[in-house]
């Protein structure tokens, strides 16, 4: 393969992002657990991400708030929101972000995992947890991009070789282009991948 051909293929693939989501629904309330501007820079960063990638066709999110025994793919058509945070103002449990699911692309990801011999399953009822809808509501408030989640494998070891992480990279090379994201709040960032230790698996899986 020529260098120019390889560069062309790389350019056609969207990058994987590590996306922090702050503290619970922090962007949608008066913040009193620290300086009022605690989350301003993070909000601005998410908004910039939304402007940069507003025209992608699918968002694939690996959230640190969903762990399963194998790898589970969210395949619902219209996922509800999971308000999986506690002790915040009542109005934050009434937030909306009505993005549709992406069952066709999710099914493609599931097929790739299964074809590689990976223990993978689908979940048609799973909703968007706050690791997904909180940052994406800031980045894409119109909720216009079909979105689906993939779980982290419970008990994964970031030190293990990423042999189970590679098959779904093909999902991002198909005609439907995916935006691949990971979310967590840990401040420990890997200098090579920009991911936290528990996100290395997810970042490699959907790069």
Q: How many domains, in number, for the residues?
A: 1
CATH fold call: Protocatechuate 4,5-dioxygenase, Chain B
How far is the N terminus from the C terminus? 21 Å
Helix and strand run: HEHEEHEHEEH
- Net shape: globular
Largest sheet strand order: 1-6-2-5
Oligomer: single chain
Rg measurement, Å: 17 Å
State the major sheet: 4 strands, parallel
Shape-level CATH architecture: 3-Layer(aba) Sandwich
The assigned structural class equals alpha/beta
Residue fraction in strands? 15-25%
Helical fraction equals 25-40%
CATH superfamily: LigB-like
Low-confidence stretches: 5-11, 174-207
CATH domain class: Alpha Beta
Give the total of beta strands: 6
